[in-house]
């Protein structure tokens, strides 16, 4: 069997196994809460495996090793930042976000700011970030199949889109949780197994001679090149703070049983991610020794896929290549399914729900329609976008998340003075500037000088501007601080086992809002509180 045939078999097996695991999740999906947040009943170990499977995307599996191969030690900030972002999430966000009772980021925005306008702006940003993050997943799938089989790029992109739809449409978040947990362990095995064989060759002194050399000046020493210091700090800022603003990451914390389980989940995620991210670094170093020609050919992203066949001959090389291909396809599927669930949840609640009928059946119909719409939009954007390296495209998505939802979450959870007008102004400034940079880069624009540098890596400018805008505008509009902010803060910060009046929140914008008389119960933008 040729390497291409073995790889095709591996990809088909992963797709079939993914659908089988998703079918199991379908058997236990019965309510709208199952579709959106798996009925908030996922334990820490399973949820941590699912979060890790979802988070380890095409950029983690292929792109990080490719950038380390091409650009050296400076790119180590990618795995460090992607992991450390969860530490920030653990300390500041995880438990309060779970206690909020929301299904999506727009739900949280509406609960905290008591404003339907903030919800709408947040919904637009969730869709934008989700689509932006889906593009590199589809790109990576096309690149993988083209590298292994010679198929056109669109074949792999379409294959991932179809399998993702088949996964998400039947069972929503409940199915996706089982699928992503399975994918994490598959990806880990796919990268670990070839390294064990590499280590065996190394120990026996039978390692083949390398085709590349390490240039100390531009690969081992950090901060080399023009504007290196700015680019590094901007990358650190984007990866550290972007994690908490990614809709598909944040939504998983809504599936925990309580705030304590959310913290435990995050601790396990840190362990799983830290262990995994050692592996792409090793592949990047091995690629520098045995596949350095990929850099000159513009194919650095394929180093993980090509290393096994370059070092091992015969059936062993084919088998290891097929295993890596299976892991890569799992990476595209797991992240894409999480992104589609988060985008479809927002689209179905805020855009499509009113036209699909009332009740459970209408809600599920809206979710499924939104799923097809999200996948179709992302696939179309992938076809027309420029060939930005996979990890670079993900960096840009992190920059947008860090410039929008990160300041909204941190300030919303920890500062009572935040106002709806301040949030909208900050989201417009941070999101507008960062999205402009992303669109320019994604579609091939290239400028010289400092302007071009900021466009390539905007987070160091846009994140501080977003924070400053939210704070300044909120101070100027302090008279519009949400009426029920004190009760909301109790809801976010008080442990669940305390018997307190937390109010109630219905994360469904299709419900009719109303106000009752003074001294009874008032509902404002779906936030129900007691007065008097």
Automatic annotation (TrEMBL):
Compositionally biased residues, Low complexity: 510-520
GO biological process: plasma membrane acetate transport
One protein family per Pfam: SSF
Domain of life: Bacteria
Skewed-composition ranges (Basic and acidic residues): 500-509, 521-532
InterPro entries: Na/Glc_symporter_sf, Na/solute_symporter, Sodium:Solute_Symporter
Annotated compartments: Cell membrane
Lipid bilayer topology: Multi-pass membrane protein
Record-level Gene Ontology MF annotations: acetate transmembrane transporter activity; symporter activity
Transmembrane segments: 6-26, 46-70, 76-97, 118-139, 151-172, 184-203, 230-254, 266-286, 322-347, 367-390, 396-415, 422-443, 463-481
Record key words, sorted: Cell membrane, Membrane, Symport, Transmembrane, Transmembrane helix, Transport
Family, similarity comment: Belongs to the sodium:solute symporter (SSF) (TC 2.A.21) family.
Name of the protein: Na+(H+)/acetate symporter ActP
